[in-house]
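> tool_call: predict_assembly(chains=two)
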Amino acid sequence: MINVISGGVTAPKGFKASGVSCGIKGNKSKDIALICSDDIAVVSGVFTTNTVKGHSLQLTMEHIKSGYARAVVINSGNANACVGKDGDKDAKEIAELTANLLNCQSENVLVGSTGVIGVPLNMPHVRSGIRTAASNLSEEGGRDAAQAIMTTDLLEKEIAVDIEIQGERVKIGAIAKGSGMIHPNMATMISIITTDVNISRGLLDKALKEVIPHTFNRVSVDGETSVCDMVLIFANGEAENSGIVNEDIEYRTFKSALEYVCINLSKLIAKDGEGATKLVEIGIEGASSEEDAYKAVCAIAKSPLVKTAIFGEDANWGRIITAAGYSGAEFDPNLIDISIGDLLVCRNGTALKFDESKAKDILKKDEVTIKVNLKKGTFSDRMWTCDFSYDYVKINGSYRS
Amino acid sequence: MINVISGGVTAPKGFKASGVSCGIKGNKSKDIALICSDDIAVVSGVFTTNTVKGHSLQLTMEHIKSGYARAVVINSGNANACVGKDGDKDAKEIAELTANLLNCQSENVLVGSTGVIGVPLNMPHVRSGIRTAASNLSEEGGRDAAQAIMTTDLLEKEIAVDIEIQGERVKIGAIAKGSGMIHPNMATMISIITTDVNISRGLLDKALKEVIPHTFNRVSVDGETSVCDMVLIFANGEAENSGIVNEDIEYRTFKSALEYVCINLSKLIAKDGEGATKLVEIGIEGASSEEDAYKAVCAIAKSPLVKTAIFGEDANWGRIITAAGYSGAEFDPNLIDISIGDLLVCRNGTALKFDESKAKDILKKDEVTIKVNLKKGTFSDRMWTCDFSYDYVKINGSYRS
């Protein structure tokens, strides 16, 4: 039984957070988030697969190796990427300053940066922001932290749930950002997950890495993958359950709740995609392998032609079959079925006469489901994306200005 | 010495063409093109790699196996794809009717269709269109044929050149269409090339297949690859050169001219990309393998974020390095150099201070060049694309309506 509760990353026991404005964004929006566990927590992370990695991200990948951390500090508005040795120095200073203020080792502070690439951080602003963030830490600060990691996001993204494990109430809270430049694996998205569960570091890591492929790695906004994206999970054990140390029912209960949290945030990211007017779920069934299911779902979810047609509320399924066709997935074009919502528009690779006004009604909704059955095997996959609108172009035509 | 001449596909001796309106498009635009050699010609073709193939394209792939043809008939406005057995029957009837009118074997007629998928051809319109096209065939019909294959193209695309081979004037003419859904390999583009050179079928085929990878397969408008795309070349020998039968200097002269023609049309296709305001050339140097050079150039040319930044005339090179980073190409992020026009904006993976107003001047032009040097090896590649504007979304949000 998974109960949705309020509080975001500060819902679990023993976590505090804050979000403040220090002037990086220059419009008084919050741009420094600090999330902190009262005591040391086990920690795991998944990072961008981009060859180019931001300076803050590189530091975090180094610090996380120990498996323990107390806090993460994130600035938005500047990716701290591709600025040379100063970028490494700045990331290190951010960790050190935060560690001083929290009275812990610098190695136990993780750092994130998201925003424009190639511009040095304004360190005087960042320093003062970190000080304010540390003095503002509170058990009600989850929402502020969620707001402080936003870049082109229109809405803050947070969720928390509560489950029972080993007789204790265990909570998982999370925030995420991500709007454009979103695509597997780990695109311009950051998510911080906190939990008070008592779990071994190995199983925390395993749970995160089992959940991500089917959640955050199934979101595509524009097919891009950025240089500073990560998902971090902190588990501080303050729920005082006896401890998850085996892959038993308790592990599976925790993993289900984690998956619930990540699916929820994934859909929020897709729905808040840059310029998006709709959340679109693409489902593939009947593929002859896992790889083929992924190739097909990915090509359809990325296709600018599919996404502009959905924006135009046009049931142009020819673009869906076309994307499946160039995806590299093996299938017989004479078997494929395609549905838009519950309306079958193509059976056995052949156009069906369908009610265009019914199709329009389906495409008018905020959430649109597209299902493709390749009828070749038993593998399936699913991906969340959004439509492609004028506003995507507007937002991205002048991002730096 | 390659001389550009007028006449398009009807510039070479012994070719006639026509382009007429038969009502498929419903707005009196030309929608049937017929291109015909007076005598049988050797022929070669390259076809879409999409698993899904239109019915007309499948027939052409069958007919071209003999290596000889007299004519190609193309309708625009309807792809004749995914409509079941009727689609095959209609393609066959188009070839038969055209063959009757031209007094040749049906197997010597190739058929192309481009436009919306999943809608049956209106055959009464097509039949009357083919009859009109056959009676309108003329040595001045190249331009009409170029217009009749357009879908969302704003401009007809044609070129012709004249070279000397074995003491004779040899001509190559070509038309192309393609605006959206353009990406390697053979996206929604069709090109018909005619030449009066006397060449063996084997060498014609070889020349075409050597030229396409670096020309038409280096154009990306939106990363899509459609179901009915092809490049066909007809060589009827009427220039009366003694014959190209070896890979000698004469072969290379012919191939250079063919490449010139294909590069020219490739750039026209990119420049006339749906909603495009600029032609963008992306160049990669210093890759450690051919594959890496291709991966990097392709990721940058496809990136919606790069393309929207160019539309916005914003020198946001962070998106260029990001796309290279997720391309899968191996390189050292600390070595990469990036130039926009002749302005170096990133050296050794690190931001340079550059003159933003100079960058703006470069990005304001109709043609923009981006150069990326990975400084790892000696391989290079090049691709043509366009910027990504509001109009791409507009055109594709309501294509069927």
